[in-house]
Design brief:
The chain is an alpha/beta fold. It has a domain at 97-219: 3-Layer(aba) Sandwich (Trna Endonuclease, Chain: A, domain 1), CATH 3.40.1350.10. The protein has six helices and six strands, in the order H-H-E-E-E-H-H-H-E-H-E-E. Strand 1 (116-126) and strand 2 form a beta hairpin. Helix 3 (158-167) packs parallel to helix 6. The longest helix has 96 residues, at 2-97. The radius of gyration is 45 Å and the shape is rod-shaped.
Length: 230
């Protein structure tokens, strides 16, 4: 009998222990479910936030694309205006240079204005034997056996002088009527403001240099300078 009571008591204690463990397990599971529910709610909120963020990013990208296109159009328009302004300034310099050429011929070659036989501004010429080649000359003037070609620049630098000097030998190809009559082809570069170092370099290339001075356009070369003839 005593053994039976001990077994019953032990069994009762084991049942109580298992019952407590089950209650604890259920409580833990309930807490876990609550945590999972909260996690799901947080994930749902996060997804909503991400969706809203994606929408905001799409709006931002659309705005940036529109801004980029607007900026590109503005830059294109600005470049066009700068190009038009540069072209206007270029013709402005040419228009200032042209009236001074007769005086330049007189100073450099002792050629009087009445002896000038040909003069043109912004003259376009096709090559007489190579039709696919053409060239525009800012100012050309012929007189007293000389054919003067003037290149006018808004900003005159050594690179521009070099380029013009390198192309001087071909000028006579575009004016065979003067070359056939023995005209000596000479070149000049002109700008409103010419650095002395550019004047020195141009002289070495055999070019006349014109810039603003006491007269509208003044010969800036050293005294006694003789231009190179082609």
């Amino acid at each position: 009998m005593a053994d039976t009571l001990r077994v019953v008591r032990a069994t009762s204690l084991e049942v109580d222990r298992l019952s407590r463990e089950m209650r604890d397990f259920k409580a833990e599971m309930s807490a876990f479910k609550d945590e999972m529910r909260a996690f799901k709610d947080e994930m749902s909120a996060f997804k909503d936030e991400m969706s809203a963020f994606k929408d905001e990013m799409k709006v931002f990208k659309d705005e940036m694309n529109a801004f980029t296109e607007e900026t590109r159009n503005e830059r294109r328009e600005m470049n066009k205006r700068w190009g038009e302004l540069a072209a206007s300034l270029g013709t402005f310099v040419e228009d200032i240079v042209a009236p001074s050429i007769p005086r330049v011929l007189r100073e450099v070659f002792d050629c009087l204005e009445e002896d000038i036989t040909f003069s043109a501004v912004r003259l376009k010429r096709k090559h007489p034997t190579l039709p696919d080649r053409n060239r525009e000359f800012d100012t050309v003037t012929a007189g007293c056996g000389y054919f003067l070609t003037v290149e006018s620049k808004i900003r005159l630098d050594i690179a521009a002088v070099n380029e013009f000097a390198d192309r001087m030998p071909e000028v006579k190809e575009y004016f065979p009527e003067f070359a056939a009559r023995g005209y000596r082809f000479v070149g000049a570069v002109a700008s409103l403001n010419v650095d002395p170092s550019v004047v020195t370099f141009a002289e070495k290339r055999g070019l006349i240099v014109l810039g603003t001075g006491e007269d509208l356009m003044t010969v800036l070369n050293s005294p006694g300078f003789v231009p190179r003839a082609y």
